[in-house]
Amino acid sequence: MLMPSVKDIREFFIGELRDEAFTLDKTGQKTIEMLGANFVADEPSIFGTPSQDYIKKEIAWYESESTNIYDINKESGADAPAAWKYSADKHGNINSNYGHLVFSDKYFKQFYMAFDELWCNPDSRRAQMVYNRPSIWVEFNEGGKSDFICTNAQTFYIRDGILSMVSQMRSNDVVFGYKNDYAWAQYLMDKFVSNWNEMAAVTGEHGEIEKGMLIWQVMNLHVYERHFNLVK
Hints:
7 helices
């Protein structure tokens, strides 16, 4: 059975806009929603064009593991992105630095734990990185934040020498969120494949792998009214 693709998701939102099938968000803004979205992320954008310049900055910030948004544009001296300022406390602190969540000692170096799990057992279903946590209920608005982590988990699988990932989201904005989160997922998959193939070359174990499919699962995939003009 074929899984829906980005093209199918795009057509859904175009149809919902045409039919004016709107919900209202907490600010009263019209929104188009898809609940329980599940598709192959086979394109880097659903609507709009990814900003490669910003993507590079955000991934570098994730690699730094800084939880302060003013470090995103630290080199250029530019202000922090508006969406991050909305999420941060008055000092610029947030919860959702994804590099911090998967690479740091604080969160058990989950990327490397997942890697080791598959190295020891390539057929494993446990190679998961957990982003969200029960404590988010008291941390999301701590000190004036509004940052309830949007990614729930990501899981790696190796089948027939091909690495696939399932990325599970609590909430995902089709226009900005998907593009940047897609780039982060691709970065992690590339890093995994590179690390694996380097280790395979040194140890002579397992053999090389290739990057495969990225599957996107979202509890609430949505487009805000301010972006309706991009739904085409």
